[in-house]
């Protein structure tokens, strides 16, 4: 039994959201459709729904990430939940206490959802395996493994512009090796039946046997962008690099940085995406990032709706009769 | 006039909650009964009551404690209060400003309750003495002196399993000297008429003249546990130890660590408690901590209900006509 | 176009609150009257209004200030807004990301108001110039430039005691040079037509050509206080001083510290103000700070009502049909 299975109940409904692997097209479409209906909430005068009123959502951040924490916090508050943020790295709760003891204590406070960010792959799954059955666990990024809510917001953003996945050509460009975003997105796009999915990167920034994930590999940018409908640029994870995997940022930009000239290889109505924060002049030129084809800020906006959707769905599935602990 | 008196109004009702000393059985029973009625709230779909809607609760933490802060924050939010957390140790508010000036400023913001955690004994009492009459002060731990909400949640947990206090034999084991938990709990159990209350510790971890608190002293664990209904293990406060009060943690465990074998001296239905966080293999063996007699995690759950009860009672008593400042 | 203009819409209504400069008497009176009506809210049992329910207020603090952040947070919560606090100085959001990119991201999260504190003059104006039209920006202090909500709460406090501005004599005493409070307050009092406005300070703590702001300059305290109705003491901004602008704090106190003896020069019903936190024995003697003429703590209380008023007015003006971004 792995993360793919532990996140589903016997009827195949989402109880946790740990990884895109093992989900069916039906799961993704349910999230996208729910997010679509929640998307309008943010444009109302009153940006709140009572869905999670009286529920407690705990941000369990073992790795600091203001941006991700903020979007989950806003999503939970717009669903009327109470939100508790615990930066475990800096918390005294952890002094002489194991992760499991910390978990046991927080769940004993009758919380309903854990949003977990951890530098180790598999951390969210580990937590989902050990929490009481009434708690939903969302993976907000674990090591190099997965960042599934980011993948879903990317897919949601694509669908709003290019709704016919089977006809799409998608290029993911940059540091695939260190990117949990890339890994999750590749799974999601394959599940949705994208026709042509390519990764574009130097050999040193590709995982071993990346083709087995269901992608074509290009080492040259112009070729990789050819006729693309969607271009996903990745952040150069400088802080995750060990040793000299690439010569210099300038050289990287010269070979793999997205400029307007290079974007001309893609389709004329191609959209450009980036999970943020962007390194201007490293993986993307400012004229592209701020240009008319960029949907980078839409991704941020969509991230709230998608996280609201995932929170509603997983907690909703928990609300059906399951043995609730006392 | 001391803390015992300042926390009561002329009719003997609780205005603050600073210490268990000087409270009557009636006060404790009121808290326990109120907590019992609030205990069910956490099992409802909507875990919120409107009791403190529109009230502002300020966590004034001069000593960092994620665990305690979290339980007070959850208790306040489940009563619909607004919660403000000020970590005074790290706050710029304190630069060149005395504690009293900081207090005066926060009370001028029309807050209703201060939850105070301080490394100095008497800090919460000092604050209660100086705040405006409309503010309730709760002691969330002051130095070695008291941790009265912990004592009440312990007593609440005991009553849920063993409701007849006068018939009980209770053993408190470990570092009594540095434990504000022990001090508060001893007072509470004596007020409730516990028949046989023992402390079990080496001489170096006992306060001078501890017998005057109304306990029997044992230096040997098996003897101390004999026929106990309730065993309360204390955390070895390594961070509070000055100098070599005990030889080593291993040796401590050998003499005072609670194992299943030793627990056999207690009654067969004895419950095992610990205020947390536990030091596994130092004061308690994992098989006991995670075993069927352990109610350690119930204590955490009960802590929310007991703190909700104390908040409701003290603020409720403030709401009766008292001269409110403008 | 400067900050004075960018904060108004074409009908001259407040969209942002960046500076007192360029505002009309009508703007100030609208804020003061609204604050007066909100002042009573804090004395009710339920200290909340639904005005900003469903709105998201973001505290964007580039400079740490617990006191100011707390008052804005309370003001927003008492108007039922959701509040998000981002300490940008310490936030990972800023790693390799420009201020504008950080801004774009936060506004993409569909927030409604930014409360900005920054060590650089003009920062709030810069942000107001670049945010989407549906967002209101409030200046919570920018460098030496302005602290307009403090000025308004000062004026509000004066009006509650001395409602006839044109008849007033007001003395502002101390470190005018480094004080954004002084600068904003001078503008506000001039707009309200105060008859006689003096600044009292040594030459080294006065800005060049301070008279052009519409004040009389006194270098001697007794003379500066003569017949004053209102005495505003400033905090000696030790942390902002570069080099030796004054000999020592003791000497400063001897020449410019406010004592009861010196206060005798002012009118017998004069009020004493200070923006806090006070340096006792440096710019003000404790007997004055805690004495019957001091309204220093009233200022803190009034600060909540004034900030609630400014939040309500600016967001209210945004709610009228303006092109809202999607």
What is the number of helices of chain A?
A: 12
* Structural class computed from helices and strand pairing of chain A: alpha/beta
State the separation between the terminal residues of chain A, measured CA to CA. 27 Å
User: What share of the residues of chain A lie within helices?
Assistant: 25-40%
Return the CATH class of the largest domain in chain A: Alpha Beta
Give the tally of β-strands of chain A: 9
Proportion of residues in extended strands of chain A: 5-15%
Low-confidence stretches of chain A: 322-326
Cα Rg of chain A: 20 Å
Average pLDDT of chain A: 90
Greatest chain-chain contact: A-B, 24 and 30 residues
In the CATH hierarchy, what is the superfamily of the largest domain in chain A? Aspartate/ornithine carbamoyltransferase
């Amino acid at each position: 039994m792995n993360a793919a299975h532990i996140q589903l109940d016997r009827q195949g409904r989402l109880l946790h959201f740990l990884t895109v692997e093992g989900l069916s097209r039906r799961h993704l479409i349910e999230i996208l459709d729910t997010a679509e209906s929640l998307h309008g909430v943010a444009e109302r005068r009153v940006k709140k729904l009572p869905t999670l009123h009286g529920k407690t959502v705990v941000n369990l951040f073992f790795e600091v990430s203001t941006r991700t924490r903020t979007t989950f916090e806003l999503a939970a508050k717009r669903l009327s939940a109470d939100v508790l943020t615990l930066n475990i790295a800096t918390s005294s709760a952890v002094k002489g206490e194991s992760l499991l003891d910390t978990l046991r204590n927080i769940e004993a406070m009758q919380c309903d959802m854990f949003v977990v960010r951890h530098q180790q792959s598999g951390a969210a799954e580990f937590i989902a395996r050990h929490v009481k059955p009434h708690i939903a666990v969302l993976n907000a990024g674990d090591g190099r493994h997965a960042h599934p809510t980011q993948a879903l917001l990317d897919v949601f953003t694509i669908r709003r512009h290019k709704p016919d996945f089977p006809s799409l050509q998608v290029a993911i460009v940059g540091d695939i090796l260190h990117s949990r975003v890339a890994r999750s997105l590749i799974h999601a796009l394959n599940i949705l039946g994208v026709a042509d999915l390519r990764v574009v990167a130097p050999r040193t920034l590709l995982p071993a046997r990346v083709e087995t994930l269901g992608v074509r590999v290009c080492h040259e940018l112009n070729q990789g962008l050819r006729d693309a409908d969607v271009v996903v640029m990745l952040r150069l994870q400088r802080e995750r690099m060990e040793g000299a995997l690439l010569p210099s940022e300038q050289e990287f930009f010269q070979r793999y940085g997205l400029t307007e000239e290079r974007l001309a290889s893609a389709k004329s109505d191609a959209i450009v995406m980036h999970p943020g924060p962007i390194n201007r002049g490293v993986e993307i030129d400012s004229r592209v990032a701020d240009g008319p084809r960029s949907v980078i800020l839409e991704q941020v906006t969509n991230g709230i709706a998608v996280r609201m959707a995932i929170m509603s769905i997983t907690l909703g599935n928990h609300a059906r009769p399951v043995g609730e602990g006392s």
